[in-house]
Amino acid sequence: MTVLRAIVGGIVRIIAITVIFSVAGPLAFAALILLIVLGVGAPFFELLRDFANLGEVSTLVSVAAWVLTFGSMLAAFPPSVITGAMFALAAVCAGLSAVWMAWCAAAVAIAAIILIGTVYVPGESSAVLLPNLQGAEQMFRAFLALNVLASLPTTLCWWLAKPLRRARIAA
Asked: Cα angle at 170 between 167 and 171, to 5 degrees?
């Protein structure tokens, strides 16, 4: 009975860690992208609005910010699920629960999405969000940039999953 309980407990912890990464990851990534865009773009927009008298454009910019946030959440969801599943399996089954393991899982998930984007080209009516990169240099630059951007949300998800990955399975 205790073996079955340990197995079910491990499976539940794997699912819970994956859900944490799947929900908090895209939210944190979208917030980070929005902060970067607003931090860089807001002073430029204020300057442009003052010189060109573009008072009506602020509504358009607000809608664009919401669309960017929603789009970045959608784009971050598949790598977040992959990262969560990989980290959960490593943390629960192998005991590798350090933050570097979460970063490695995020790097593998980002590489997988980039490689899928080079192999699979969705149709025009498809809602699939995949990068369209040609050449090894573009793929490498995208991989590095996305890993740098994903490091903060991955660390947040790792921290949120701390109670689940610290529990010990009784053998």
From this structure: 140
> Within 10 Å of residue 30's Cβ, how many Cβ atoms?
20
Asked if 162 and 17 count as a contact pair (C-beta separation under 8 A), the reply is no
Element (H, E) at 128: none
Whole-prediction pTM: 0.82
Q: CA-to-CA distance for 106 and 79, rounded, in angstroms? A: 7
Query: How confident is the model over 110-133, as pLDDT tens digits?
Result: 999 888 888 877 777 666 667 777
CA pair distance 74, 92, nearest whole angstrom: 27
The alpha carbon torsion through 107, 154, 94, 1 (nearest 10 deg) reads -140
Task: Give the residue carrying structure tokens 């192998």.
Answer: 94
How many residues are present in the chain? 171
d(CA 135, CA 114): 12
State the residue for tokens 């992959």.
Answer: 82
